[in-house]
Structure formats: C-alpha cells, structure tokens
Amino acid sequence: MSDDHCANLEFRPRLPRDKSVGIGCIGAGFIMSDCHLVAYRQAGFNPVAIAARRQEQADSVAHRHGILNVYTDYNELLANPAVQVVDVAVPPDLQLSVIQQIVTHADHIRGVLAQKPLGVDYQQAVEAVRLCREAGITLSVNQNMRYDQSVRACRSLLDSGKLGEPVLATIDMRAIPHWMPWQSRQGWVTLRIMSIHHLDTLRYWFGDPVRVYASVRPDPRTTFPHEDGICLYILEYANGLRAMGCDDVWAGPSKEGSAADIGIRWRVEGTSGMARGTIGWPSYPERTPSTLDYTTTQSPQWHMPRWDEVWFPDAFVGPMAQLLCALEDNQIPEISAEDNLKTMALVEACYRSAREHRAVELTEITG
C-alpha cells in the first residue's frame, strides 16, 4: 500500500486463527470456481467437498482447486460430517430449498454463507433466516462488495471521523454486466443483482435510510423480460444525509459499435473531508485495483493510498473469513443474515417505489 500518511487504513479482512474448518461448496459456476475457491486457496481455507448438477463441471472445478469429495447431489455433500460450513452459490430461486435441506444437518453444520440476493424477495429471505436461527446455524450473506478494498478503506475513513459528518454520497456505475442464463427466468435483473451491491455498500457506510425513491427503465440490450434495467435511486437519512446511485447497465451503444466509457465511481462528501474512488471490477479479468483518494480540512492535499489486491477474486476472502471468525469467537458475523434483511428490504422498497412512483419508507417492507 502506497502513501505512508494513509497506512493505517483498515481495508483487509480479519482472518480466523483456525483455517482448517471444512467448507462444503454447493455450485460450480463462475463465481465459485473463479472467485470463491481462488480466494479460499489464497487464504489457506479448507474446502473439502463440492456439489454441482453436472458431473463434468463438478469434476473439473474439484480438480482445479484440489477438492477430494465431489457430488452431483448436494444432499450427499450435506451428509458428509467433514462439512462444517456450507458455501451456497446457486441461483436465488433455488437458494431457499437448499437452506431447507441444510438445516436438517444441524448436528455437524455450524455455518452457512449464502449468495446474495438471499432468495427471490424479502419474504424468502425472512424464511431463510428463520430456518437457520431455529436450527442453531449461523447464516451469513456474501455481500462481497463490502470487502472491495476501496469500499472498506472508505469505511475506515468514516469510522476515524476524518470526513466529519457525511453530507452527500454517490455511486455511479456505467458498466455492462454479463448476465447469467438463470437470470432470464427471474423477471428482474439489475436491482437485485447489481444495485444490491451498491445499496448494501451505502448501508455499510452510513446505516439505514428512512426512505428511498427509485426510478427504473428496461435496458435496451437485455432481451429477456425485465423492468429494472437502468436504475436510479435516492436514499434519505434522518440526519439529513442524502445518498444516490445510478446503475447504468446500458452504458451507451459500445457493444453496438460506439466508443466505450466504462467504469464505476463513488464519492463521499463530509463536513470536514471528502473521499472519492473507483471500483476496478468492470475491467475483470484484467487485475485492476479499486482506488481511493481523500482530502480533509486538517490535511488539505489529496492522499492517494493504493494496493495490489482487487475485488475479483481477492475480496472474496472477506465474506468467508468473517463467518469463520464469528464461529471461532461465538459472535455475530459482520454480515449477519439478520442485518442483510435490511438490505433485502431496501431493494424491495426500490421495486415498490419504481412501480408506484413515490418514496417508500423501509418500515413499509419490514413492518
């Protein structure tokens, strides 16, 4: 990390003391094979089993990452007593059924890291949380943008008070995701798949807003039915803070022949300082670290800490690490499923706001 003035920023996750806990992986798609398992091996974690419907895919990923136990039926994986933590990376419409089976093995399964979103809607997320709570299993959600290095460094700045009281925050995404085939059957796309990262990041930085106003339109490039292609939203906080996001998955006709202008930029303005940054993810698979610059009234030059780590795949250590640490210390995870219900509720409020053309308070969703 460069810029010695900023060397005390906390942007790396805390790792567990015991890395031998057996992890069972359900799913063998891109996010598991190219992100989770790459990061776990880098950190020295212990994936002991993997399950995927297609034998060839399961065998290939297991061979690549040195996993000995391979299944095509995830129930067989769940029955393996060596599996103490389950990493669930299946489409959201399949997640609840997997969790329903996991809780029947609470004799040896202690924790679950579930992919975001936690089900297809807020109600499914509530049910998943209830099932794990009643089974005594610690459930956490893989909101991995919280472990992007610039996002975490910004939180460190906010915690230190260097920026003063937050006044205005923005996240501006102009990027074209690669939608997965399973997304075509959901009937929705950006708010629950991309915006959920940014909405959760704003909650991670500032806590819960009172209400949100959202406006959406379809993305011209995405051919399957959906309402939430390009998404705009404003979060209103009780203390006066306003936060806004623009999630533009069209980003101009660059795939149709024009020049491209792709990137994600964020900015936080406070009463005594300002921070700005970029997110390197749109350049994947090229390793492009995210960035952070900041200035304060006490130190008015621009400070520009830099690091070598990237979100994809390095930051994926964080969500599993915080779950393992929680189990090790008998504490609530940093990304507890109970807390993630508020992120799911915020996403749900965005959908209601866009459909009804009005601001929606979170209490309308949570009751």
Write the layout of secondary structure elements.
Elements: E1 22-26, H1 30-43, E2 46-51, H2 55-65, E3 69-71, H3 74-78, E4 85-88, H4 92-102, E5 111-115, H5 122-135, E6 138-142, H6 149-160, E7 166-174, H7 190-206, E8 211-217, E9 230-236, E10 242-248, E11 263-270, E12 273-279, E13 291-296, H8 317-329, H9 337-356, E14 360-361, H10 363-366
Parallel strand pairs: 1-2, 1-4, 2-3, 4-5, 5-6, 7-10
Antiparallel strand pairs: 7-11, 8-9, 8-14, 9-10, 11-12, 12-13
Helix pairs in contact: 5-9, 7-9
Describe the structure.
The protein is globular, with a radius of gyration of 20 Å. Helix 5 (122-135) runs antiparallel to helix 9 and helix 7 crosses helix 9. It has 367 residues and is an alpha/beta fold. The model has no long low-confidence stretch (mean pLDDT 96). The strands form two sheets. An eight-stranded mixed sheet has the order 13-12-11-7-10-9-8-14. Strands 3-2-1-4-5-6 form a six-stranded parallel sheet, sandwiched between helices. It has two domains: 13-145 and 319-336, NAD(P)-binding Rossmann-like Domain (Rossmann fold, 3-Layer(aba) Sandwich), CATH 3.40.50; 149-311 and 344-366, Dihydrodipicolinate Reductase, domain 2 (2-Layer Sandwich), CATH 3.30.360.10. It has ten helices and 14 strands.
